[in-house]
UniProtKB/TrEMBL annotation:
Gene Ontology cellular-component terms listed: apoplast
Organism of this sequence: Abeliophyllum distichum
Name this polypeptide is given: Laccase
Domain Plastocyanin-like: 42-154, 166-317, 428-559
Sequence similarity: Belongs to the multicopper oxidase family.
Length: 577
């Protein structure tokens, strides 16, 4: 990757060739350094006839979009003006040799405390498309999120015809209460958290909720044009079905990686996923409006927000005439809430483009294999208290029966300074500690262990990881997100993974490459990735309630032998705990 530079110092070029060349300077730039300032503040927002103070970036909800090109360097100065501790995660950015900028609290950094600032410094390497940023501490991301739009390098184009316009569509989740109070109460009582009051599109719940018709996102389009919708699921705890009435879309990208295009009338998108779709509008003015709606895909056993968010797709009349006649309003038909077979068929349609310009570098051989069970569980109720979890216990969640405890210092700092003693161990189990019929009748003992255990990988290790859902306290689709890497989804299925039979069906040619993927309810998924990025990398369920309960772990990737394979020392303004 070329560093950001000009072929000659700008002052020299101007002196040599005058103003004419100065005007041409943008054409000489390989990439840019882009500076952003994120002031974390509180401001009042009204939704559903309910006004409350929320934490936001620069007083905007959703937060500001970041726009860059592949190869650009980003410097984002985050200044904390509120009482909450804060970190920001740049979700899906590879962060190659910039792990200090990844953002998960107590993993790569201590939080930015009140009155403090920290500059996230990273370069976008080999990525183009849609990602997003969000807070990565407790449940602060409920209101702290925004799009990251990565354009192709200058003079490079999309592998499809350039759309007429591009529009971010970011799904969120709204609580009338303070989300921090919601999760804190749940962790104290051991029960499930109160569900949200609405879903949102670009911050607006839309007309299907009470007292909300004025808070509706409207997308105005022209007939006969192609629009690229940059879909982002920033909801806290819910996978969503999305559809536009009487329209289909063509999916062209997932998690900032181009895919083989395919057409669909329904998109399923998990929290943490991004999907670019092409919407071809009708060739004529239809004299109708069309709802764009989203509602949950839900496979668990608990309570959830069973509501529908809608925006409005409006066609501009070619003559700008205003008709008094009432337009018809069409609503999309969304799948049943628990349409697991439909979701499995949908996710299998995603394939890497894998052409000479955009190859799929799938590890063909594997150095290390891991088998991780995911699911819910319980932890004992403290003495002399009453708990509202299963059978009087507290809800927990785990990977290989380890409910991951976040330390009080940052794992990456402890690793780099070789002060891991008392902070973490590197004995995370490679396989489930006890075998049982993972998707059958669950065991009676649902208690989990609680520890800070990591996996250490030598640089350039090729990894195969099978993620297995369990039926403990209910089988459920778990959107797993890996920081610092993309991974290839080489296989998936229902039931228990069979290590002797299932690998024969792995796709090692053009599997989809993602950073977040739903482990099927009552099933498994196999992923492969190359551990070529030194640092400490979080992996967790992107349902925040499950992350809070402990469905999370971390990988240490050691330095390689070359200078270009080592993590640089921490920046001078890295926050302290």
């Amino acid at each position: 990757m070329e560093p950001c530079h000009l072929p000659l110092p700008a002052s020299m070029i101007v002196r040599l060739f005058g103003v004419f060349v100065a005007l041409l300077l943008p054409e000489f730039v390989f990439c840019m350094t882009r500076n952003y300032t994120f002031n974390i503040v509180q401001h009042n927002v009204t939704r559903l006839c309910h006004t409350k103070s929320i934490v936001s970036i620069n007083g905007r909800f959703p937060g500001p979009r970041i726009v860059a090109r592949e190869g650009d360097q980003l410097l984002v100065k985050v200044v904390n003006h509120v009482s909450n501790n804060m970190t920001i995660h740049w979700h899906g950015i590879r962060q190659i040799r910039s792990g200090w900028a990844d953002g998960p609290a107590y993993v790569t950094q201590c939080p930015i405390q009140t009155g403090q600032a920290y500059t996230y410094n990273f370069t976008i390497t080999g990525q183009r498309g849609t990602l997003f940023w969000h807070a990565h501490i407790s449940w602060m991301r409920a209101t702290l999120y925004g799009p990251i739009i990565i354009l192709p390098k200058r003079n490079e184009s999309y592998p499809f015809k350039k759309p007429y316009k591009e529009v971010p569509i970011i799904f969120g989740e709204w609580w009338n209460a303070d989300p921090e109070a919601v999760i804190n109460q749940a962790l104290q009582t051991g029960g499930g958290p109160n569900v949200s009051d609405a879903y949102t599109i670009n911050g607006f719940p839309g007309p299907l909720y009470n007292c909300s018709s004025k808070d509706t996102f409207r997308l105005k389009v022209k007939p006969g044009k192609t629009y690229m919708l940059r879909l982002i699921n920033a909801a806290m705890n819910d996978e969503l079905f999305f559809s536009i009435a009487n329209h289909t879309v063509i999916i062209v990208e997932a998690d900032a990686v181009y895919i083989k295009p395919f057409q669909t009338d329904v998109v399923m998108i998990t929290p943490g996923q991004t999907t670019n779709v092409l919407l071809k509008t009708k060739p004529y003015y239809p004299n109708a409006t069309f709802l764009m709606a989203a509602r949950p895909y839900f496979t668990g056993q608990g309570t959830f927000d069973n509501s529908t968010v809608a925006g409005i797709l409006e066609y501009e009349h070619p003559l700008n005439h205003t008709f008094n006649m009432k337009k018809m309003v069409f609503k999309p038909t969304l799948p049943p809430l628990n349409a697991t077979t439909l979701v499995a068929n949908f996710t299998r349609k995603f394939r890497s483009l894998n052409n000479p310009n955009f190859t799929a570098s799938v590890p063909q051989t594997v150095d290390k294999q891991f088998y991780f069970t995911l699911g819910l569980g319980s932890s004992p109720c403290p003495k002399n208290t009453t708990c509202q979890g299963p059978n009087g216990t507290k809800f927990a969640a785990s990977v290989n029966n380890v409910s991951f405890a976040l330390p009080t210092t940052a794992l990456l700092q402890a690793y780099i300074t070789k002060k891991s003693n008392g902070v973490y161990t590197t004995d995370f189990p490679t396989n489930p500690p006890s075998t049982f019929n993972y998707t059958g009748t669950p065991p009676n003992n649902t208690l989990v262990s609680n520890a800070t255990r990591l996996v250490a990988l030598p640089f350039n290790t090729s990894v195969e990881l099978v993620l297995q859902d369990t039926s403990i306290l209910g089988a459920e689709n778990h959107p797993l997100h890996l920081h610092g890497f993309n991974f290839f989804v080489v296989g998936q299925g229902f039931g228990n993974y069979n290590p002797t039979q299932d690998p024969a069906n792995f796709n090692l040619v053009d599997p989809v490459e993602r950073n977040t993927f739903g482990v099927p309810a009552g099933g498994w998924v196999a992923i492969r990735f190359l551990a070529d990025n030194p640092g400490v990398w979080f992996m967790h369920c992107h349902f925040d309630v499950h992350t809070s309960w402990g469905l999370r772990m971390a990988w240490i990737v050691m330095d390689g032998p070359l200078p270009s394979q080592k993590l640089p020392p921490p920046p001078s303004d890295l926050p302290e705990c």
